[in-house]
Write a structure and sequence with these properties.
The protein contains ten helices and 17 strands. It has helices at about 40-45, 135-140, 140-155, 170-185, 195-200, 215-225, 240-245, 270-275, 285-295, 315-320; strands at about 1-5, 15-20, 30-40, 65-70, 85, 90-95, 100-105, 115-120, 125, 160-165, 185-190, 205-210, 230-235, 255, 275-280, 305-310, 330. The strands form four sheets. Strands 3, 4, 5, 8, 9, 16 and 17 form a seven-stranded mixed sheet that branches. A six-stranded parallel sheet has the order 12-11-10-13-14-15, sandwiched between helices. A hairpin with a 4-residue loop joins strand 6 and strand 7 (about 100-105). The longest helix has 14 residues, at about 140-155. It is globular, with a radius of gyration of 20 Å.
């Protein structure tokens, strides 16, 4: 089969399309014929060596949609030919609500979805939400799961919230916006791009602030939220995370699922004086994945930025590396 392979580190230009052996299902496993896959920032980080436990060669990709191609021993379904999406996170202990010591993720260390076929445990393969196209279905797994757990499971998002979403444009933050709008909450987003802010408005964002042209963006967020956001979902870390604590409303929640901008120098006073709940989140459980899919069954749509042929994988990766996308960058595998 054809697959995108990373044989050495050095950035997106090291990605190559090659012929490799097609995987076969073991007991309890399913082989999925991939139609569409999608990029996450972790795929680019891996090419740069900026991810723990890298072992090469590997087929990247955590997100994928397609059809069931083969069932391993002991697997009763979904039946061959069923349109499906894959939960890429393998080894979550739903009882303890944490990752187990043996947890793995498709795309690293396991071979992932940037290939014509991928193998996964049967419990990780779910019927595709009927309202979604193949492109849209491929866009939801890891970003949708991460956003769902951060916003709902950890953040307790409701219609009564004022939600601050810094750095709109990434796959996860765009999903957080979709969830908040779907819930009926008021939303405030920031970006360094007026184009992304305008797009966010069309997706339902209540307010948008350009942090490059407004260095006092945090003061504007506090003003627009009439006393501070009740819920912030942050992927940035650094100064953005520190400012988010400072402007949060009394009794507010600040959820962190990433640290793209590095470590933060925070004021404990902002946390204890305002009785803030500061919550960590990363990816999500099988229960979170099922809850996420139910939202998309109800008519919610993810944002697809662009669709690239598999042979243009380097250009697709570079778009993600430069942060030019609004939503998810998708690879057409078949």
């Amino acid at each position: 089969m054809r697959a995108v392979r990373l044989n050495e580190l050095g950035g997106p230009e090291k990605l190559r399309v090659e012929e490799i052996a097609q995987p076969q299902p073991g007991p309890g496993e399913i082989v999925v014929k991939i139609a569409r896959a999608a990029f996450n920032r972790r795929d680019v980080f891996i090419t740069q060596g900026l991810y723990p436990g890298i072992a090469l060669p590997v087929t990247p990709g955590s997100d994928g949609s397609g059809r069931v191609a083969a069932l391993g021993d002991g697997v009763s379904g979904p039946a061959v030919g069923t349109p499906v999406v894959i939960n890429p996170e393998i080894g979550w202990d739903d009882d303890r609500y944490t990752l187990t010591a043996n947890a793995k993720i498709l795309g690293m260390p396991l071979d992932g979805t940037f290939a014509e076929y991928v193998v996964a445990p049967a419990i990780n393969v779910f019927p595709k939400p009927a309202p979604l196209s193949e492109d849209e279905a491929a866009a939801i797994p890891l970003a949708g799961l991460t956003a769902y757990r951060a916003a709902f499971t950890r953040g307790g998002l409701t219609k009564d919230d004022v939600v601050f979403i810094p750095g709109i444009g990434s796959g996860v933050q765009t999903m957080v916006l979709a969830y908040a709008v779907h819930a009926g909450a008021k939303t405030i987003v920031t970006s360094g791009s007026d184009e992304k802010l305008a797009h966010a408005k069309t997706l339902g964002a209540s307010f948008g602030i350009n942090y490059k042209t407004n260095p006092d963006w945090h003061k504007e967020v506090r003003k627009l939220s009439e006393g501070g956001p009740t819920l912030t979902v942050d992927c940035n870390g650094g100064e953005v995370f520190a400012r988010s604590l400072d402007i949060a409303r009394f009794g507010g929640r600040v959820v962190s699922y990433g640290g793209t901008n590095g470590d933060a120098k925070i004021r404990p006073f902002s946390i204890f004086w305002k009785h803030l709940s500061v919550l960590g989140s990363s990816m999500g459980s099988p229960s979170d994945f099922a809850g996420m899919l139910a939202l998309f069954e109800s008519g919610l749509k993810p944002v697809v930025d662009r669709v690239y042929p598999m042979d243009d994988v380097v250009a697709a990766a570079e778009r993600v590396l430069k942060g030019e996308q609004m939503g998810k960058v998708v690879l057409a595998i078949a």
